[in-house]
C-alpha cells in the first residue's frame, strides 16, 4: 500500500464566537510525540499583522489539545487555553507602539490558526501542516447599532433584540483613539444591556455645546437612557474606563440627576472634579507636568501626575456621597493612572464615611492600565495622540502580559456578574404586564 | 415609574454550524410561570417556518431547554434542539414545502422568542416578552469554493482551509436534481474536500440525463482524487436516495474506481445503471403504475423499486464492493424500499463473503430524507416527477421526533465513520 500524506486535522471551536468566549483547539493525525508550533495570525483594521505562537508536543496518539496540554514556549507558556489570542503581539518588523482595537464592530476579527512542524519562533513558512480560520465578534446577532445625535448628546446606542425593556448602561471610555470607542459597548449589549457609548471628548461633541462639555451633558445622556422606550429607567448603570471612569465617579458623587443603579470604574482615579468643563478636568490631570516621567525607551509615564493622592477631601471626589454599589477595578502596575493608589484611598474614604459596604475593590497584581474585555492582547505601551499638546507620544500603560490577561479575564467575569446582579436580578417591583 | 425588566433569553451558540446543539436558557421570569418559546425563520423562498414549546419556569424563574420538559407545542419532552428540528411552515403557508438552503454563504437566521402563557400555535396577536437571534451556518469560516465546469463535470468543490492534502468526498444527491451544495459545504467544514455534483439538471441542458452514465461519476471521482489538495487514496462517496444507487454502482465496478468508503442513505442497490441515467428513468417509468397515491393525493414510490429486489439482473453486484459501507435507512421510508434493500444487500454481501464491510443502521419511524441535523423533518413535499416532469407531492414518510433522532444519530455516526476511514486509518503512514 502506497504511503499517502493526509494533513493533520485541526478543529477550533467556536468557529464564530464572541471575543470573550473561550476557544478550544484540538489537532489530531500528528505523529506520536511530535513537536509542533501553533500560530495565530490576525490582520488588523490598520493593516498590521499580529501573531501569537506556542510550542506543543503531541501525545502517544498524535493529538494536541490546547485546553489541556502544556505549552513549552512561544508568546506564552503553560496550560493556557486562550493563550493564542491574549498573547498576540505585532509581528517582528511592524510599526512600533501599536494597539489592537476594533473600530468597526459590525465585522469580526478573522484569526488564522496554523500548525507548523517543530518548535519555531520565526520563519513561519507557507504552507503550514494545517490551518483553521475563526471569527471573533464584538457583537451578537440581532443587536442594533444606532447613531445618536439628539437631545444635545452624541454617541452610539447598542440595543439587544426584543421588546425590552432592558437595563441600560452609560459607557464612558477614556482619552485617545479617534471617534467613539464602541467595542466594549457592543459587547455589553450582546450580554443583554442597552448601552450608550458616549462621546464627550471629540470636537463634534464639543461643537454641539459651543466647545464646552459640562456636567449637564452627562445628565442629558443619563436622561436619554432613562427616557428611552426600550430601557428600564430605574436600572441604569454607568461604566467608565480610564478618564471616563474618573469622570463617572465624580458625576455620581455630585448632587445632580445622575443616579445609576450601580457603578463600574476601571483604571480610573478620584482626583478630578467635574465642576466646570471636561476640558478643564482633563487639563487638571496635567497641572503638574513636572511629575511626568519617562522610561528607558522614552515612553511617557503619567502615573505620577495624580500623586501623591491629596489628603484634603475637597481636592477629591466625595465618595462618601456614593449611594449605589460600586465595582472598582485597577492594576497595580498601571503606569498611566495612579488607579491602584486611588482605589486604596477610595476604600479608606468610604470606610471612614461608613459606606464601604457598597464597594467591591479589585486590584490586580502586575496588571497595567488597559484592562480590556478578554481576550484582548496586553498592550504595555502604545502610540497616543495628546490632544492637549497636539503631539504624538508613546504612553507606557504597564502590566506583565500573563497577569494582565488574567486581570482582563477575571475582572470581566466579575463585571458581568455585578451588572447582572444589580440590573437584572434586583428585586422586581410592581410588575406591569 | 418602575417597570418590570425584560426576561433574559440566551441561545448558544449565537453563530453555530447547523449540526451543533443549541442551548437556550430564559431567566428573570416570574417563578412557576407558564411561557411559550417560539422559533421563527424566514426561508430563502420567503416562507415563514416556526416551532414552539410550552414550558413552566422553575422557582427561580428560569427555563432551561436542555433540561426542562416541554409540555406541548411542536414537540414534547426534554428536547434541547426541538425548537429547530420541529420547525414547520406557519399556518396559512403554501402547502408541501421543504426547507433547504440554496445559498450556503449566508446563515439561516432564527428568531427565538419568549411569550407569556401557553399559546396553542397562533402567534398573530402574541407579543413577545423577550427575543434573541441566532445564526445557523452550513459553512465554517475559511472554507473556499471552486466552481467546477471541466471535462463536462458540473459541480462545486468545497475545500477546507489549509494546504491539505485532505480526504475527499464525492457528494451525490437524488432524483430531485440540481446542484445541492449544503451537505458538501458542511462536510468541508468538518475537514473533507467535498465535491457536490450535479447530474440531473432542472435547467441546465448540458447535464442531460440521456448523456450521463457511470463514466460521468467516475470522471468526477478521478477529478477529486487527482486534485492537488486531495489525498488520492482517501476519497469516499456519500449518496442519498438515487445518489446511493449511483455510489453502489460505481463502487461495485471495482476496476474503474476505488473509493475508500461509502456512506449510503435511503437508497437501493436494485437500480443497475447499464447505460445512461436516462435509460434508468425510462426503465423505472415502465413501473410507474406501481406508485400508490394516498388519501391526500401524495405519491408513494417505494413499490416501484421493491419488486426489483427479487430480480438479480436488476441489482448491483454488491459482492464486488471492496470498501467499508455505512448503510442508513428509515423504516417508514415511503419513497424508496430502503430497509428491504438494506436487508437484501446484507444477504448478498454475506453470500459473497464481504459482509464484514457493511454497517447497517435502520431507524424506526424515520422517513426518506435523512439529512444532517437539525433539519426539520419533511414528511411530504413538492417534487418534479422524473417520470412526467410534472409537479407532484411525494410522501417521504417518517414521524418528526423519530426522524429527527435518526438525523442526529446517523450524522454523528457518519462523521465518526468518515473520520475513521478517511483520516485516522492513515495514522502511522503519514509523511510528516
TrEMBL record, chain A:
<dbReference type="Pfam" id="PF08840">
    <property type="entry name" value="BAAT_C"/>
</dbReference>
<comment type="similarity">
    <text>Belongs to the C/M/P thioester hydrolase family.</text>
</comment>
<dbReference type="GO" id="GO:0006631">
    <property type="term" value="P:fatty acid metabolic process"/>
</dbReference>
<dbReference type="InterPro" id="IPR016662">
    <property type="entry name" value="Acyl-CoA_thioEstase_long-chain"/>
</dbReference>
<dbReference type="Pfam" id="PF04775">
    <property type="entry name" value="Bile_Hydr_Trans"/>
</dbReference>
<dbReference type="GO" id="GO:0047617">
    <property type="term" value="F:fatty acyl-CoA hydrolase activity"/>
</dbReference>
<feature type="active site" description="Charge relay system">
    <location>
        <position position="334"/>
    </location>
</feature>
<dbReference type="InterPro" id="IPR029058">
    <property type="entry name" value="AB_hydrolase_fold"/>
</dbReference>
<dbReference type="InterPro" id="IPR042490">
    <property type="entry name" value="Thio_Ohase/BAAT_N"/>
</dbReference>
<dbReference type="InterPro" id="IPR006862">
    <property type="entry name" value="Thio_Ohase/aa_AcTrfase"/>
</dbReference>
<feature type="domain" description="Acyl-CoA thioester hydrolase/bile acid-CoA amino acid N-acetyltransferase">
    <location>
        <begin position="20"/>
        <end position="150"/>
    </location>
</feature>
<dbReference type="GO" id="GO:0006637">
    <property type="term" value="P:acyl-CoA metabolic process"/>
</dbReference>
<dbReference type="InterPro" id="IPR014940">
    <property type="entry name" value="BAAT_C"/>
</dbReference>
<feature type="active site" description="Charge relay system">
    <location>
        <position position="369"/>
    </location>
</feature>
<protein>
    <submittedName>
        <fullName>ACOT5 thioesterase</fullName>
    </submittedName>
</protein>
<feature type="domain" description="BAAT/Acyl-CoA thioester hydrolase C-terminal">
    <location>
        <begin position="216"/>
        <end position="424"/>
    </location>
</feature>
<feature type="active site" description="Charge relay system">
    <location>
        <position position="242"/>
    </location>
</feature>
TrEMBL record, chain B:
<dbReference type="InterPro" id="IPR016662">
    <property type="entry name" value="Acyl-CoA_thioEstase_long-chain"/>
</dbReference>
<dbReference type="InterPro" id="IPR042490">
    <property type="entry name" value="Thio_Ohase/BAAT_N"/>
</dbReference>
<dbReference type="GO" id="GO:0006637">
    <property type="term" value="P:acyl-CoA metabolic process"/>
</dbReference>
<dbReference type="InterPro" id="IPR029058">
    <property type="entry name" value="AB_hydrolase_fold"/>
</dbReference>
<dbReference type="Pfam" id="PF04775">
    <property type="entry name" value="Bile_Hydr_Trans"/>
</dbReference>
<dbReference type="InterPro" id="IPR014940">
    <property type="entry name" value="BAAT_C"/>
</dbReference>
<dbReference type="InterPro" id="IPR006862">
    <property type="entry name" value="Thio_Ohase/aa_AcTrfase"/>
</dbReference>
<dbReference type="GO" id="GO:0006631">
    <property type="term" value="P:fatty acid metabolic process"/>
</dbReference>
<feature type="active site" description="Charge relay system">
    <location>
        <position position="333"/>
    </location>
</feature>
<feature type="active site" description="Charge relay system">
    <location>
        <position position="241"/>
    </location>
</feature>
<dbReference type="GO" id="GO:0047617">
    <property type="term" value="F:fatty acyl-CoA hydrolase activity"/>
</dbReference>
<comment type="similarity">
    <text>Belongs to the C/M/P thioester hydrolase family.</text>
</comment>
<protein>
    <submittedName>
        <fullName>ACOT3 thioesterase</fullName>
    </submittedName>
</protein>
<feature type="domain" description="Acyl-CoA thioester hydrolase/bile acid-CoA amino acid N-acetyltransferase">
    <location>
        <begin position="19"/>
        <end position="150"/>
    </location>
</feature>
<feature type="active site" description="Charge relay system">
    <location>
        <position position="368"/>
    </location>
</feature>
<feature type="domain" description="BAAT/Acyl-CoA thioester hydrolase C-terminal">
    <location>
        <begin position="215"/>
        <end position="423"/>
    </location>
</feature>
<dbReference type="Pfam" id="PF08840">
    <property type="entry name" value="BAAT_C"/>
</dbReference>
Amino acid at each position: 500500500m502506497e504511503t499517502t500524506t493526509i494533513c493533520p486535522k485541526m478543529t477550533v471551536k467556536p468557529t464564530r464566537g464572541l471575543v470573550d468566549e473561550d476557544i478550544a483547539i484540538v489537532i489530531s493525525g500528528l505523529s506520536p510525540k511530535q513537536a509542533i508550533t501553533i500560530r495565530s495570525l490576525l490582520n488588523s483594521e490598520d493593516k498590521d499583522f499580529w501573531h501569537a505562537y506556542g510550542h506543543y508536543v503531541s501525545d502517544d496518539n498524535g493529538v494536541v489539545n490546547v485546553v489541556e496540554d502544556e505549552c513549552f514556549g512561544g508568546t506564552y507558556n503553560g496550560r493556557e487555553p486562550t493563550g493564542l489570542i491574549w498573547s498576540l503581539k505585532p509581528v517582528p518588523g511592524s510599526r512600533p507602539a501599536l494597539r489592537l482595537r476594533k473600530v468597526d464592530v459590525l465585522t469580526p476579527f478573522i484569526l488564522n490558526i496554523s500548525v507548523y512542524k517543530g518548535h519555531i519562533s520565526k520563519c513561519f513558512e507557507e504552507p503550514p501542516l494545517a490551518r483553521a480560520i475563526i471569527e471573533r465578534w464584538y457583537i451578537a446577532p440581532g443587536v442594533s447599532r444606532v447613531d445618536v445625535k439628539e437631545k444635545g448628546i452624541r454617541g452610539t446606542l447598542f440595543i439587544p433584540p426584543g421588546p425590552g425593556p432592558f437595563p441600560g448602561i452609560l459607557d464612558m471610555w477614556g482619552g485617545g483613539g479617534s471617534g467613539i470607542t464602541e467595542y466594549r459597548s457592543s459587547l455589553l449589549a450582546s450580554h443583554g444591556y442597552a448601552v450608550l457609548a458616549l462621546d464627550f471628548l471629540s470636537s463634534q461633541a464639543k461643537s454641539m455645546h459651543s466647545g464646552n462639555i459640562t456636567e449637564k451633558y452627562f445628565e442629558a445622556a443619563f436622561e436619554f437612557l432613562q427616557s428611552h422606550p426600550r430601557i428600564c429607567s430605574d436600572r441604569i448603570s454607568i461604566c467608565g474606563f480610564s478618564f471616563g471612569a474618573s469622570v463617572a465617579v465624580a458625576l455620581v458623587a455630585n448632587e445632580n440627576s445622575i443616579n445609576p443603579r450601580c457603578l463600574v470604574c476601571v483604571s480610573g482615579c478620584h482626583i478630578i472634579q467635574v465642576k466646570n468643563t471636561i476640558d478643564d478636568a482633563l487639563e487638571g490631570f496635567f497641572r503638574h507636568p513636572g511629575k511626568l516621567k519617562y522610561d528607558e525607551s522614552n515612553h511617557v509615564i503619567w502615573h505620577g501626575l495624580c500623586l501623591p493622592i491629596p489628603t484634603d477631601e475637597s481636592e477629591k471626589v466625595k465618595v462618601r456621597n456614593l449611594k449605589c454599589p460600586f465595582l472598582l477595578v485597577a492594576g497595580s502596575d498601571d503606569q498611566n493612572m495612579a488607579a491602584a493608589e486611588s482605589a486604596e484611598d477610595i476604600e479608606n474614604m468610604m470606610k471612614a464615611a461608613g459606606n464601604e459596604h457598597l464597594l467591591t475593590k479589585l486590584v490586580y497584581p502586575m496588571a497595567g492600565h488597559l484592562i480590556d474585555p478578554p481576550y484582548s492582547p496586553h498592550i504595555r505601551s502604545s502610540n497616543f495622540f495628546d490632544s492637549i499638546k497636539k503631539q504624538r507620544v508613546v504612553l507606557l500603560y504597564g502590566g506583565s502580559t500573563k497577569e494582565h490577561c488574567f486581570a482582563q479575564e477575571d475582572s470581566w467575569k466579575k463585571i458581568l456578574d455585578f451588572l447582572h446582579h444589580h440590573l437584572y436580578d434586583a428585586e422586581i417591583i410592581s410588575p406591569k404586564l | 415609574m418602575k417597570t418590570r425588566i425584560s426576561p433574559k433569553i440566551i441561545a448558544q451558540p449565537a453563530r453555530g454550524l447547523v449540526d451543533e446543539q443549541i442551548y437556550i436558557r430564559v431567566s428573570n421570569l416570574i417563578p412557576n410561570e407558564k411561557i411559550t418559546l417560539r422559533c421563527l425563520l424566514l426561508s430563502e423562498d420567503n416562507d415563514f417556518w416556526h416551532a414552539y414549546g410550552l414550558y413552566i419556569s422553575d422557582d427561580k424563574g428560569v427555563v432551561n431547554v436542555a433540561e426542562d420538559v416541554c409540555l406541548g407545542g411542536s414537540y414534547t419532552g426534554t428536547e434541547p434542539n426541538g425548537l429547530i428540528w420541529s420547525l414547520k411552515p406557519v399556518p396559512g403557508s403554501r402547502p408541501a414545502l421543504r426547507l433547504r438552503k440554496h445559498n450556503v454563504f449566508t446563515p439561516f437566521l432564527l428568531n427565538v422568542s419568549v411569550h407569556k402563557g401557553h399559546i396553542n400555535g397562533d402567534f398573530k396577536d402574541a407579543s413577545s416578552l423577550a427575543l434573541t437571534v441566532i445564526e445557523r451556518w452550513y459553512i465554517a469560516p475559511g472554507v473556499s469554493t471552486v466552481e467546477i465546469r471541466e471535462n463536462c463535470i458540473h459541480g462545486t468543490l468545497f475545500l477546507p482551509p489549509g494546504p491539505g492534502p485532505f480526504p475527499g468526498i464525492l457528494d451525490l444527491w437524488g432524483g430531485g436534481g440540481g446542484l445541492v451544495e449544503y451537505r458538501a459545504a458542511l462536510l468541508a467544514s468538518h475537514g473533507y474536500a467535498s465535491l457536490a455534483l450535479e447530474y440531473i439538471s432542472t435547467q441546465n441542458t448540458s447535464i442531460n440525463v440521456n448523456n450521463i452514465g457511470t463514466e460521468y461519476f467516475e470522471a468526477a471521482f478521478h477529478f477529486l482524487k487527482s486534485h492537488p489538495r486531495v489525498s488520492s487514496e482517501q476519497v469516499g462517496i456519500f449518496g442519498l436516495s438515487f445518489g446511493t444507487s449511483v455510489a453502489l454502482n460505481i463502487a461495485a465496478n471495482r476496476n474503474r474506481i476505488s473509493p475508500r468508503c461509502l456512506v449510503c442513505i435511503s437508497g437501493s442497490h436494485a437500480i443497475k445503471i447499464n447505460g445512461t441515467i436516462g435509460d434508468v428513468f425510462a426503465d423505472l417509468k415502465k413501473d410507474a403504475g406501481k406508485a400508490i397515491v394516498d388519501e391526500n393525493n401524495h405519491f408513494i414510490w417505494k413499490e416501484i423499486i421493491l419488486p426489483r429486489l427479487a430480480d438479480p439482473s436488476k441489482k448491483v453486484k454488491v459482492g464486488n464492493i471492496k470498501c467499508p459501507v455505512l448503510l442508513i435507512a428509515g423504516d417508514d421510508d415511503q419513497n424508496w424500499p430502503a430497509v428491504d434493500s438494506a436487508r437484501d444487500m446484507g444477504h448478498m454481501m454475506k453470500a459473497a463473503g464481504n459482509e464484514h464491510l457493511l454497517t447497517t443502521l435502520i431507524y424506526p419511524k424515520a422517513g426518506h430524507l435523512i439529512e444532517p441535523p437539525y433539519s426539520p423533518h419533511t414528511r411530504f413535499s413538492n417534487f418534479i416527477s422524473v417520470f412526467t416532469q410534472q409537479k407532484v407531492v411525494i410522501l417521504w414518510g417518517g414521524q418528526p421526533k423519530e426522524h429527527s433522532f435518526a438525523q442526529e444519530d446517523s450524522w454523528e455516526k457518519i462523521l465518526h465513520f468518515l473520520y475513521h476511514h478517511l483520516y485516522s486509518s492513515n495514522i502511522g503512514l503519514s509523511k510528516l
